[in-house]
Amino acid sequence: MTSIDEAGGVSGEGAVSGALLDGTRRALLRKIAVAQAEQRVPSVVAAVTRGGRQVWSGARSCVNGHAPDDQVQYRIGSITKTFTAVLVLRLREEGLLELGHPVERYVPEAGLGPEVTARQLLAHTGGLAAEAPPPWWERTPGSLRPRLTDVLGAEPFRHEPGLLHHYSNPGFTVLGALVAAVRGTTWEEALRAEILEPLGLRRTGVRPEAPSAGGWAVHPWADLLQEEKVEELGLMAPAGQLWSTAADLARFANFLLHGDKEVLGRDGVRELRVPAAPGDGDSGYGLGTQLLHRRGRDLAGHTGSVPGFTAGLWVCEEEDLGAVVLGNATSQLSSGTLAAELLELVAEAEPRIPEPWRPLPHVDRKLLALTGLWYWGSDPVAVRLRAGGGLELGPVKGGRQSRFVPADDGSWVGLDGYYSGETLSVVRGPEGEVSHLDLGSFVFTREPYAEGGPTPGGVVPEGWRGLPG
């Protein structure tokens, strides 16, 4: 018989260097205590990270004096998918695959044809079924599905590839096989060498290592428990096999916010969080990450659920915050919702203090000459030169701004907002003077509809005029 928590510890909370106020810490502890009691979970452990480090952890357990700490392993279910996505993007960064290429180029044995791409599988838009054929893959040995065709089934598609978002566990099995094929190793070996070891996630792995929590089912109508079996998922492991701890997932949350030069840089982890598929209401999906808009904040991360365990991890770039929740009961604890609530609690109780404004270290006269008012047709917009070295273009008052970073050819590339990925070019006249700005065919001029200017289609000969009375 497995114990409810095969770990010692105190029933309460812990913290790294006491970075949060006492009132905030108590509110966090109360939040998980209420969840453990009301949702009837054998144990809950949680952690919060801010500014690149873990600032709080807490736990509650039904066994007096025996609550888990942030080093106890729980199964994390589909949070595994985000790890798999990082491995795929690493291959793309190294030029070993293109996300838009058919996956059959790398794993022809999947038999998915020429239309399904790695990007579609990462975003769950490949049209594949949500689950593997019976028996239920989470409750049966992976040895029952030794080949990809066993995971995908005789009819793997439920929708036309690229048509819509349809969550697919088999899709991430194919991505795991893709990683193994391109690397010439196993998914597990690639995971350990390329993510776990460089990030120092020493308590994360495919199999549990003591101390680890046992998984349980809670009777729906009585306060009783039943032990859940733990199965090896085989080829399905890249979709939901991993075990981890609150401390390791807090470290992984920091990675998802800031990147790591040995694993995937800041731009790469940002790409994970770019919306790639719509969801329901305020939800969506990136590349291996779930996206959520709550209370004015954009969150990214993933939830996880396998028999005996639930898990939730969310990060918020704006607040530089992450929150992790782990529980050991089947579908009992709303770990994703609780993790989001912990993040919001800290953001609202202790709003982030911005870094001091600092001016640019030197003046670039050519860039300075581009700042100020420009006109798209008759609409005024402002170009600003920011201390980070980029340009910002947006309405004079209000509205969403778009930031631009320099490209090697002298143009600028949109970093966010409406113009994300678009090219901003500075067009010069015969004497080298700036004529106008070209942004994805939109022309921005120093005067609105100037006679003889570069406005596409020209302007009427009469020019600006009033309306006689």
CA distance, first residue to last residue? 94 Å
**Beta fraction:** 15-25%
Helix content: 10-25%
**What is the CATH C level class of the largest domain, in words?**
Alpha Beta
Shape: globular
Helix count equals 11
Radius of gyration: 26 Å
Number of domains: 2
Q: How confident overall, as mean pLDDT?
A: 92
What is the number of E strands?
A: 21
Question: Which structural class matches the secondary elements?
Answer: alpha+beta
GO molecular function, one term: hydrolase activity
Pfam families: Beta-lactamase (PF00144), DUF7586 (PF24491)
Keywords: Hydrolase
Enzyme class: hydrolase
Structural overview:
- With about 475 residues, this protein is α+β, with helices and mostly antiparallel strands.
- The chain has two domains: about 1-355, Beta-lactamase (3-Layer(aba) Sandwich), CATH 3.40.710; about 365-445, no CATH class.
- It has eleven helices and 21 strands.
- It has helices spanning about 20-40, 80-95, 120-125, 150, 170-185, 185-200, 235-240, 245-260, 265-270, 335-350, 365-370, and strands spanning about 15, 45-50, 55-60, 75, 215-220, 225, 245, 275-280, 285, 290-295, 295-305, 310-315, 320-325, 370-375, 380-385, 390-395, 400-405, 410-415, 425-430, 435-440, 440-445.
- The strands form four sheets. Strands 1-3-2-13-12-11-10-9-8 form a nine-stranded antiparallel sheet, sandwiched between helices. Strands 14-15-16-17-18-19-20-21 form an eight-stranded antiparallel beta barrel. A two-stranded antiparallel ribbon has the order 4-7.
- Helix 2 (about 80-95) packs across helix 5.
- The relative contact order is 0.13.
- Its EC number is 3.1.1.103.
- InterPro entries: AmpC-like (IPR050491), Beta-lactam-related (IPR001466), Beta-lactam/transpept-like (IPR012338), DUF7586 (IPR056008).
- It is an enzyme of class 3 (hydrolase).
- It holds the Pfam family DUF7586.
- GO terms for molecular function: hydrolase activity.
